[in-house]
Amino acid sequence: MAKKRRPNNRPAKSKAGKSKASGDARSVSLVAASSGTGWVLRHPRCARDRAEDIEEVHMMIEAGELDVAQDELRWLLSGCSDCLEAHLLLGQVGLDKDNDFPLARGHFGYAYQLGLRAWKRSGEPTPVPYSQLANRSFHESGRSLAWCLEKLGKSSMADEVVATLLKLDPTDPLECRQMIRDLRDTGSLPML
């Protein structure tokens, strides 16, 4: 008897009927959007439980309290290393506070890799649109990672990140293609 093949855009099901793509509650996973169009990152419970803390960090950053925000983000990540938004914010604080490209690249890259692994575990379905709120910290981290890579002279790596982001959301809402073009044409660094 031939084994049934699952469609490329659907995660495999276990005997219990749960999607293998959903992963465990401690890691980032990818699920079909409730609207039926596209895919959405499901953030781990520890990240969802820190939503209020993340909002406080946003207020700290807006108030210019970068040292306090940095400490708070490090504390949040010590309890939940898969919190994409905390990595995104810590990368941004690293740039704003100390112009620390290696630190920023590390945090942007970590958040990007978390989302990328979830996507790959799910069979690489598309689209994973930026318009979905749960996908934004992943896409923003990817764009920021590409920016840092270009700044650090790693153009081929930046191109790879941008190509992946465009595959996930071909509408290019963050204008990643234009950002890279501007960096290369002018040699200047447009703002993140």
Short descriptors:
single chain, 192 residues, mainly alpha, Serine Threonine Protein Phosphatase 5, Tetratricopeptide repeat, 8 helices
The tally of domains stands at: 1
Strand content: under 5%
Mean pLDDT: 87
Please bin the fraction of helical residues: 55-70%
Strand order of the largest sheet: 1-2
Q: Tally the helices.
A: 8
CATH class value = Mainly Alpha
> How many β-strands, per DSSP?
2
What kind of sheet is the major sheet?
A: 2 strands, antiparallel
| Shape type | globular
CATH architecture designation: Alpha Horseshoe
Question: What fold name stands as the CATH topology?
Answer: Serine Threonine Protein Phosphatase 5, Tetratricopeptide repeat
Helices and strands, in N-to-C order? EEHHHHHHHH
Structural class: mainly alpha
Terminal CA distance: 55 Å
Under CATH, the homologous superfamily reads Tetratricopeptide repeat domain
Radius of gyration: 18 Å
